[in-house]
Design brief:
Alpha-Beta Plaits; about 30% helix; 5 strands; single chain; elongated; 5-stranded antiparallel sheet; about 30% strand
Length: about 160
């Protein structure tokens, strides 16, 4: 088996996608920030001392998607042409979903995952003063479309 991110000597390298044709691609990721019941109540009623947690996290997630290549050494700089980050307060915490779209030479799975995790970090940062137990859980890619490998959906997410 050969790995695309390793050269013949086994050294890490960035895959050259110069010859690939741009195609429309998308990826969706999900994650969760578990918080105490009192924190979930404060998120629902808008009484978190630092302000509008969900609005800040949404913007942080979008910014994270756009900065992905600066964080991951072998990620390509691609055009993030669309990024939607949705957050929903649930009884046990905050559910986060991000969908990122592009028309480029490589996929946006890492951008979607970065959007979710940066949004989650932002939630933790905004509530940590009132809830030291806040924890990021289950960040994962749940679907992708486009590119040579086509569409894919995580099994447990499709039902």
């Amino acid at each position: 088996m050969s790995f695309t991110h390793l050269d013949a000597a086994g050294h890490a390298r960035m895959v050259d996608v110069t010859e690939k044709q741009p195609t429309v691609r998308s990826a969706t990721a999900r994650g969760f920030v578990r918080v105490a019941p009192e924190t979930a109540a404060a998120l629902r009623d808008g009484s978190v001392p630092k302000g509008d947690v969900l609005a800040v996290a949404r913007i942080a997630g979008i910014q994270g998607a756009k900065k992905c290549a600066e964080l991951l050494p072998l990620a390509h700089v691609i055009g993030v042409h669309g990024a939607v980050v949705d957050l929903a307060v649930e009884d046990r915490g905050v559910a986060i979903e991000a969908t990122v779209r592009t028309a480029d030479r490589t996929g946006v799975e890492m951008e979607a995952l970065t959007a979710v995790t940066v949004a989650a970090l932002s939630v933790v940062d905004m509530v940590k003063g009132m809830d030291r137990s806040a924890a990021i859980e289950n960040a994962r890619i749940v679907a992708k479309t486009g590119g040579r490998s086509g569409s894919w959906t995580r099994e447990e997410e499709s039902s």
